Amino acid sequence: MNINILQSEIQEFINKNSNTSISKLALQKNPFPEVDWKLILNQIEAKAKAKDKLPSWFNTPNILFPGKISVEQTSSEATALYKSNLVSGENLIDLTGGFGVDDYYFSKKVKSVVHCEINRELSKIVQHNFEQFQVRNIECRSGDSLEILKKSTQKWDWIYIDPSRRSDVKGKVFMLKDCLPNVPENLDFYFEKSAAILIKTAPLLDLSAGLSELKNVKTIHIIALENEVKELLWELHRDYSGAISVKTANITKGSVDTFDFEMQQNQSLPNYGLPQKYLYEANSAIMKSGAFDEVAIHFKLEKLHKHSHLYTSEELIDFPGRIFEIKAVFPYNKTEIKIHLSGKPCNITTRNFPETVENIRKKWKIKDGGNHYSFFTTDVNTNKIIVFCTKIK
What we know:
Residues 278-320 form the PG-1098 ferredoxin-like domain. The chain has 393 residues and is of the alpha/beta class. Helices cover 31% and strands 28% of the residues. The protein has a 9-stranded mixed sheet with strand order 3-2-1-4-7-9-8-10-11, sandwiched between helices. An 8-stranded mixed sheet has the order 12-14-15-13-16-19-18-17. A hairpin with a 5-residue loop joins β18 and β19. The longest helix is centred in the N-terminal third of the chain and has 17 residues, at 37-53.
């Protein structure tokens, strides 16, 4: 990183242009010929990416940014804050430090944090940024984290790992053994160094696939941000062999919706029924967890169908997901659709239905948007129905 980029006039230019189109700026002449123009443009583009995701980095003076891809791939501050509440103790080592957002928040809960990063340039950037934040309890080490662990005699209260998928692995199946570092291969060694391991994975990883590769899993956390699942967190404890807890959290600007359950503990079946006055759709974190029956039983709701994963009740309840008031329910046929939907704006969702939203819109000339919502689904009697609603939450 060219240190000249920290000159006050260059930083002022970067801040001033954080909302300017990069393609437009790229056509301009470089006003600072002593610094590579592409480097300045990269800082502007990466900083713009950080505005909502990393407001502390965006708003702190003299922060350096790596490539925009590193900013896109890093944890958001919201999810990093959630993770920080899972750890405590004297020390934590992060084997895949990256841009350091998680470690910044870990440092507020753990007395000493070590940030390992194999990319020497990125490690320098992160160390510089921690100095701007005046964080004194994070040590940045550059190099292969496995070698760093092997050479150290220290024991850790926590090991944190965010493995990245190897670029040479093709196909859609996502396995931890296909990532760097290879956690399943090194897990026994990690447990020699710490009794507690926290692993972050992408939401693409199937829960059963993760469990088939890991051991001593105590808790799985499924974290969504504004109803989009962002990451899975696997909490492993060396001597643990009990039931696995699943904790879901949907973080929004105003609150956090949570729903917790134990895997394979509930053998009960939910009640099924036809649509009543209210319709409920679980948030994306719950949907990822597969707790389709558990959520119905817990909230005493009826499911519309075993595979529809929509819920209903006569009385309104607080629920971790979207809530609708049902205005009409009608069969999926030409006559009813012409009466209720054709040519009118409507938000469409399909659940356990043979056609896609795109095909439905095209086939029946239904416009997008508006204040009404239609769920194309299958009811308990296996009839194709449309539930016409207005949104409450």
